[in-house]
């Protein structure tokens, strides 16, 4: 009969969680649970970033008033080692988007610009150019009416920053962007209609 051995003790890793910090624009949010939100950001350092904001919908949450669409902020989050969903820890607003004063047309363009950046920006990779372009576009929309000129300029600059702008003009910016990401956000048609009457 073999001698009885003591079981090997279970060892649990207690590695320190990695905290990251960056500038980010809130481009999409949805309810994740009864009290939490799932938020997509366009960031300068990490491209398209998804975070969970636990307890954001509870009364007295430190996130209250800070997780609205198109807000430009500095965020701190815990980096996940097992998925692409990270945990939001802190938000410090840099430039809130004045939604109550924004027109439907303004929101339509802001939505398309934000969704386009989120669609083409590589996740977890620097995207300073795209983040800066979106920040400038939102600032412009806060003080100027939406126009087709602004719409076309944004698509052209996005294509240029991605290195896919055809200088010969044979391929238009929207065609180049479509080839890159498969299809453009559905909000593009709404944005086009919103600025149709302006030149």
Q: Could you give the topology of this structure?
A:
Elements (H helix, E strand, L loop, with lengths): L18 E13 L5 E7 L4 E6 L18 E7 L6 E11 L8 H17 L7 H16 L4 H14 L11 H9 L5 H8 L5
Parallel strand pairs: 3-5
Antiparallel strand pairs: 1-2, 1-4, 2-3, 4-5
Helix pairs in contact: 1-2, 1-5, 2-3, 3-4
Describe the oligomeric state of these chains in a short phrase: single chain
Structural class: alpha+beta
Largest sheet: 5 strands, mixed, barrel
Neighbour order of strands in the largest sheet: 1-2-3-5-4
User: Rounded to an integer, what's the Rg over CA atoms?
Assistant: 21 Å
Number of strands: 5
Question: Overview of this structure, please?
Answer:
By secondary structure, the chain is of the alpha+beta class. It folds into two domains: 19-95, OB fold (Dihydrolipoamide Acetyltransferase, E2P) (Beta Barrel), CATH 2.40.50.140; 99-194, no CATH class. It is built from five helices and five strands; from the N terminus they run E-E-E-E-E-H-H-H-H-H. It has a five-stranded mixed β-barrel with strand order 1-2-3-5-4. A hairpin with a 4-residue loop joins strand 2 and strand 3 (48-53). Helix 1 runs antiparallel to helix 2, helix 1 (104-120) runs antiparallel to helix 5 and helix 3 crosses helix 4 (173-181). The model is unreliable at 1-14 (pLDDT under 50).
């Amino acid at each position: 009969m073999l001698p009885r051995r003591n079981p090997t003790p279970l060892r649990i890793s207690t590695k320190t969680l990695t905290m990251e910090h960056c500038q980010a624009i809130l481009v999409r949010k949805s309810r994740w649970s009864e009290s939490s939100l799932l938020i997509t950001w366009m960031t300068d350092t990490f491209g398209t970033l998804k975070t969970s904001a636990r307890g954001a919908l509870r009364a007295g949450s430190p996130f209250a008033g800070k997780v609205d669409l198109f807000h430009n902020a500095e965020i701190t989050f815990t980096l996940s080692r097992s998925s692409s969903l990270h945990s939001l820890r802190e938000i410090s607003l840099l430039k809130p988007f004045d939604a109550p004063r924004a027109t439907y047309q303004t929101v339509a363009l802001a939505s398309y610009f934000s969704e386009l950046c989120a669609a083409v920006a590589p996740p977890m990779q620097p995207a300073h150019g795209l983040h800066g372009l979106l920040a400038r576009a939102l600032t412009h929309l806060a003080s100027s009416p939406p126009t087709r000129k602004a719409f076309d300029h944004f698509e052209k600059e996005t294509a240029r920053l991605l290195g896919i702008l055809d200088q010969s003009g044979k391929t238009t910016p929207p065609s180049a962007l479509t080839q890159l990401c498969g299809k453009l956000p559905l909000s593009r048609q709404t944005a086009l209609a919103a600025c149709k009457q302006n030149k």
